[in-house]
Design goal:
Keywords: Methyltransferase, Transferase
Number of helices: 6
CATH class: Alpha Beta
Helix content: 25-40%
Protein name: SAM-dependent methyltransferase
Order of helices and strands: HEHEHHEEHEHEE
Number of strands: 7
Organism: Petralouisia muris
CATH topology: Rossmann fold
Length: about 230
């Protein structure tokens, strides 16, 4: 079955949020980074502006700028209404209001859209579906990032998550996944089972982050090749 854009709710984050979510230090920012499921985030754009090296992978990159922009506008009101109805589930610290949230998200997505066509031409935005093999050799990237996708969507199943993360670890020396709870911010058996699987061959740790927007979403999973110091 063909993937349809109307099944996606585009919601982009910026570089500062990526730095906090993934505990990216100054030395990390100079490394070769892969972003999995980046969607309309402007991390790639902002890093490129600073001469960083980021390649983003997502299913939505098969669509045109106009189609993605249209979809963003289609879901904008609905998403903000849902946020309004569930404000108590969020921590209003770094982002202090609904108005600031909408402004921050729309700013990030507009930056992405302004860069999208150029970035696709330069090979920075790559259409890819996890489970599929990536067109890169072993350890091509220093760090792989996955935000608000892996581990959150437990319905995709254990095998999907293991296979996806195994392929990420093939091309990345380490991967960082945030958050480590499901869509309702609950701990699940999936995270325990994933850790049990990968810690046999990799260094695995859970670390606290300075980023917490949805209550309870403040931990990061890091899996490293044991050759990485």
């Amino acid at each position: 079955m063909a993937f349809k854009l109307d099944s996606v709710v585009p919601w982009g984050r910026n570089m500062e949020e990526y730095k906090l979510m993934f505990r990216l230090e100054d030395n990390d920012m100079s490394k070769k980074i892969a972003g999995f499921g980046d969607g309309p985030a402007c991390f790639n754009y902002e890093m490129t502006e600073r001469n960083g090296s980021v390649i983003s992978f997502d299913l939505i990159y098969q669509f045109s700028k106009e189609d993605i922009e249209k979809r963003i506008e289609e879901v904008r009101t609905t998403v903000m209404q849902q946020m309004r109805e569930n404000m108590d589930n969020y921590v209003w610290k770094n982002i202090k209001s609904l108005e600031e949230l909408e402004s921050t998200r729309m700013s990030a997505m507009r930056k992405f859209l302004s860069d999208y066509e150029k970035g696709k031409a330069e090979g920075r935005y790559v259409f890819h579906e996890l489970l599929d093999k990536l067109p890169y050799g072993a350890d091509y990237f220093d760090i792989g990032l996955s935000s608000h996708f892996l581990l959150m969507y437990t319905s995709l199943g254990y095998d999907f998550h293991i296979a996806s993360m195994t392929e990420m670890l093939r091309v990345c020396k380490e991967i960082r996944i945030f958050p480590i709870v499901d869509l309702d911010a609950n701990k699940t058996d999936l995270i325990k089972n994933v850790i049990d699987y990968f810690q046999r061959d990799y260094n695995v740790e859970i670390v606290k982050t300075e980023y917490e927007f949805q209550k309870g979403d403040n931990k990061l999973l890091i899996i490293k090749n044991r050759d990485v110091i």
